[in-house]
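Sanity check. The docking grid for flavin-adenine dinucleotide depends on where the pocket ends up, so I'm generating a full predicted complex first rather than guessing from homology. Inputs follow.
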Amino acid sequence: MKLTEFLNQKKLALSFEVFPPKTDTAFESVKHATEEIAKLRPSFMSVTYGAGGGTSQYTLDIARNIKEQYGVPTLAHLTCVSSTKETVHARIADIKAAGIQNVMALRGDIPAGLENADRSHWDYKHAIELIRELKDSGANFCIGGACYPEVHPESVNQSEDILHLKEKVDAGCDFLTTQMFFDNNLLYNFLYKIREAGITVPIIPGVMPITNGNQVERAIKLSGSFMPQRFKSLVDKFGTSPAAMKQAGIAYATDQIIDLFANGITNVHVYSMNKPDVAAAIGRNLSDILGQEW
Ligand code: FAD
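Predicted complex below; grid placement will be based on this.
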């Protein structure tokens, strides 16, 4: 199923993100975790692509398994910046052969140490080039792109970031998923600005439940997200107690999602990090709102 078919129904729903294993030995445990999440019947599941593409086969294996065994629509991520055209074209053919209809087209982070390198000879510089190739692949994919309510760290300012986002959407994005954020007002301001800029495709907000004090620093570093005082206090108070932090993180994410639904968002994407218990706990907190048993 193409995700746009579901998104256009405007039904309140949760989708979940999982990531592939980094090694062969971790494959079975990751597969099991993703199956437990699939059993929760989310609207769809996205499977990330390892930076540099080293674990690309696992992305496809996990995505295909969820789709075929559990009937959950899947979104396979694909990055391009550290790959050659040949590799990317082979991955696109693999996705098509696996019968996966939804692709999240990403540039990927610039490999460490190459931030200031001359990129003129690189096969890919931005996600838009991958989006154009997916569009021309003849596979009729439903294509997603990434967007950043708090501005991509490489952008000089938000106007420039939104200008490039509009180009990306015009090149063929059918929907956009946001980077995580912990203050919904940042998302609402962003939505206002992108709608004003003429971006009309569905936006799927991404919410990350922080359930472990150690996760905070890494998550903030990767995303550059602003931490509201309410969130900081919660981490200060409960960050060293795993069970309490998990409960507080799930409650915070649940609160964020309820507010998003109350303000017109229909599908929220939860960065569930291969944790079925966290995904299920959020679902249970929202069972009457979603009209679904968890
Ligand atoms: P782009 O759209 O290319 O944007 C990157 C920067 O370049 C922005 O500052 C943008 O404004 C600017 N820009 C865009 N187009 C142009 C242009 N034509 N000219 C000049 N500047 C331009 N990483 C992974 O490795 N694997 C994953 O599975 C993965 N999943 C993700 C899912 C989501 C929802 C998000 C938000 C991010 C994900 N990432 C993933 C991280 C992502 O790869 C990085 O954030 C990366 O730095 C940017 O990717 P992009 O597709 O947004 O790039």
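Relevant for the grid: The pocket of flavin-adenine dinucleotide is lined by residues 48-49, 51, 77, 79, 106-109, 126-128, 146, 152, 154-155, 161, 164, 167-168, 177, 179, 206 (CB under 6 Å).
Also worth noting: The domain at 8-289 is CATH 3.20.20.220 (TIM Barrel).
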